[in-house]
From TrEMBL:
GO molecular function: 3 iron, 4 sulfur cluster binding; metal ion binding
Needed co-factor(s): [3Fe-4S] cluster
The protein's name: Ferredoxin
Region: Disordered, residue numbers: 62-98
Record keywords: 3Fe-4S, Electron transport, Iron, Iron-sulfur, Metal-binding, Transport
Pfam families assigned: Fer4_15
Length: 98
C-alpha cells in the first residue's frame, strides 16, 4: 500500500498523526506531512487506513490498484467506442422519433 497526502487540502486536525504517528508528522501549526515516501508496511495498514478514513477533509489518498491478488486487469477492447453512439443516422435503431 502507498499513500499520498495533499497538503493544500489538509486543515490541521491531526487525526492522521494520532492513528499512525509513524507515517504522519505535524508541523508547528498542526498541518500534516507524510513521513518517508508513503509506502506502508503490511502490519501498519490498519492504522493508516483508519487515518485515511477518519480524515475530515479527505486529504489522504491510497495510490495504486485495489484488485485482489491474481485478478488480471480488465482487457482493453479493440472495438471503437464511438460505434455505439446514438446519432441521427441510427435513430431508427434506438427508437428516437421526431
Amino acid at each position: 500500500m502507498k499513500i499520498r497526502l495533499d497538503r493544500t487540502v489538509c486543515d490541521g486536525f491531526g487525526i492522521c498523526a494520532k492513528h499512525a504517528p509513524g507515517y504522519f508528522s505535524l508541523d508547528d501549526w498542526g498541518y500534516a506531512s507524510v513521513v518517508g515516501d508513503g509506502t506502508v508496511a503490511d502490519e501498519d495498514r490498519g492504522a493508516v487506513m483508519n487515518a485515511l478514513l477518519d480524515c475530515p477533509v479527505h486529504a489522504i489518498t491510497e495510490l495504486g490498484d485495489r484488485r485482489p491478488n491474481g485478478t488480471p486487469p480488465p482487457s482493453s477492447s479493440a472495438e471503437d467506442p464511438s460505434a455505439h453512439l446514438k446519432t441521427e443516422e441510427n435513430e431508427a435503431e434506438w427508437g428516437f422519433t421526431r
